[in-house]
Amino acid sequence: MISIENLSKYFKTDKQDITAVDDLSLTINEGDIFGVIGYSGAGKSTFVRLLNRLEEPSEGKIVIDDREITTLNSKQLRVARQDIGMIFQHFNLLWSRTVKDNIAFPLEIAGVPKKDRETRVEELIGLVGLTGRENAYPSQLSGGQKQRVGIARALANQPKVLLCDEATSALDPETTNAILDLLVDINKKFGLTIILITHEMHVIRKICKQVAVMEKGKVVEQGDVLELFSRPEKPVTKKFVEQVMGNQQEEDSMAQLLQRSEEGNIIRLHFVGETTNQALISQLAKRFDVDINILQGKITQTQGGAYGTLYVQINGEEEEIQKAVSFVLEQTSVEVEVIRDDG
Ligand SMILES: Nc1ncnc2c1ncn2[C@@H]1O[C@H](COP(=O)(O)OP(=O)(O)OP(=O)(O)O)[C@@H](O)[C@H]1O
C-alpha cells in the first residue's frame, strides 16, 4: 500500500544543517495500523508530513496506492491528498466554524454538492459519536470531542490512508483510550490503513500490529509489536518497552522470589500473543486440584494478544500439577517454565 524508499529531509537553518529524516525506507501493508515511535526530535513529525508533502522531501520516493506522490505537480497533489486524511495533536480545527461546518470543509473543497455534503456530514457525526453536538463550536468541546471532529473531517472524502501525528498526546489517558478505540473501529470497518506517530509505547501496544522505532531520522528497529516486546534489541527500543512493562531489574530477582516463598512449585507463565482470552488461572484452579498463588508479574494486552510474564506458586499433588501444566502447554499458547519443582 505504501512504499517509502530512501526518503530524506534536510533543513538548513542559520546555525546548522539538520537531517530530520535520514535515508528512510519502509513498506506498509494495506489495512495495517502502523506505529512509528521515537523520542522528541527523532524526526517522526517530519516523516509523517513528508508522506502527504506537507513537507517537501529532499530525496527519496513515496508511493501510496500505486501513485508516486513524490512526482505529482501541485494540482495532482491536491487530488491525491483526498486519499490521505490527517489528524493532528492540536486538532487544527477552524474555530469560527461549527462541528458540522468543520467536517463539511474538505467536502466543499472537493466540490461535493450541498445535499450530498449534508448526508455525508451526518453519517460522519454518527460514526465518531458526536450526535447532538453538530452546532457546537470547537471552543465548546472537550479535547476528545475536538479530536473526534478532526477524525470525522479527515475521513470526509473517504481516504485510503489516515496519518495521525501525535493524535492523542494532548489528551488524558481515558480520552486517549476512547480515541484509540475509535481508530481501531474505523480501521476494521473501512479497512483504512493508519500510520500513527507517537512517543508513547502504550499507544503502540494498544492499537498497532507493526511498529518502527525512529532515532536521529532513521528507523533503527522494526517489526511485529509482539516481537519487539519480546526481543527489543536497540537500547531505545528497550526503553520504550519499559514504558509499558516496567524495568525488569527493578523487580524482585529470582533469588529473592524463591526465598520469599520457601516451598512449593514455582512456574513461570510467559504470554506472547495469547488470544484465547480464557481466565487461565481460575481455569487451572477449577479443573485441577491445585492452589495457585500469584507471586509476581505483569501482563499487558496488545492487538496481537496478551503479552507478559506471571510467576505463580502452584501447590497440590504432583500428578495434578503435571496435569495443570500439560493443560497450559496443550490448550493455550502460553509458555511454561518450571522454576522450582518441589515434587
Ligand atoms: N521547519 C524546520 N526547520 C528546521 N528544523 C526543523 C524543522 N522541522 C523540524 N526540524 C528539526 O528536525 C528534527 C526532527 O524534528 P521532528 O519534529 O520531525 O521530530 P519529532 O520526532 O516529531 O519530535 P517532536 O515530537 O518533538 O516534534 C529536529 O531536530 C527539529 O528541530
TrEMBL record:
<dbReference type="InterPro" id="IPR018449">
    <property type="entry name" value="NIL_domain"/>
</dbReference>
<dbReference type="InterPro" id="IPR003593">
    <property type="entry name" value="AAA+_ATPase"/>
</dbReference>
<dbReference type="Pfam" id="PF09383">
    <property type="entry name" value="NIL"/>
</dbReference>
<dbReference type="InterPro" id="IPR027417">
    <property type="entry name" value="P-loop_NTPase"/>
</dbReference>
<dbReference type="InterPro" id="IPR050086">
    <property type="entry name" value="MetN_ABC_transporter-like"/>
</dbReference>
<keyword id="KW-0547">Nucleotide-binding</keyword>
<dbReference type="Pfam" id="PF00005">
    <property type="entry name" value="ABC_tran"/>
</dbReference>
<dbReference type="GO" id="GO:0005524">
    <property type="term" value="F:ATP binding"/>
</dbReference>
<protein>
    <submittedName>
        <fullName>Methionine ABC transporter ATP-binding protein</fullName>
    </submittedName>
</protein>
<dbReference type="InterPro" id="IPR041701">
    <property type="entry name" value="MetN_ABC"/>
</dbReference>
<keyword id="KW-0813">Transport</keyword>
<feature type="domain" description="ABC transporter">
    <location>
        <begin position="2"/>
        <end position="241"/>
    </location>
</feature>
<keyword id="KW-0472">Membrane</keyword>
<dbReference type="InterPro" id="IPR017871">
    <property type="entry name" value="ABC_transporter-like_CS"/>
</dbReference>
<dbReference type="InterPro" id="IPR045865">
    <property type="entry name" value="ACT-like_dom_sf"/>
</dbReference>
<keyword id="KW-1003">Cell membrane</keyword>
<keyword id="KW-0067">ATP-binding</keyword>
<dbReference type="InterPro" id="IPR003439">
    <property type="entry name" value="ABC_transporter-like_ATP-bd"/>
</dbReference>
<keyword id="KW-0029">Amino-acid transport</keyword>
<keyword id="KW-1278">Translocase</keyword>
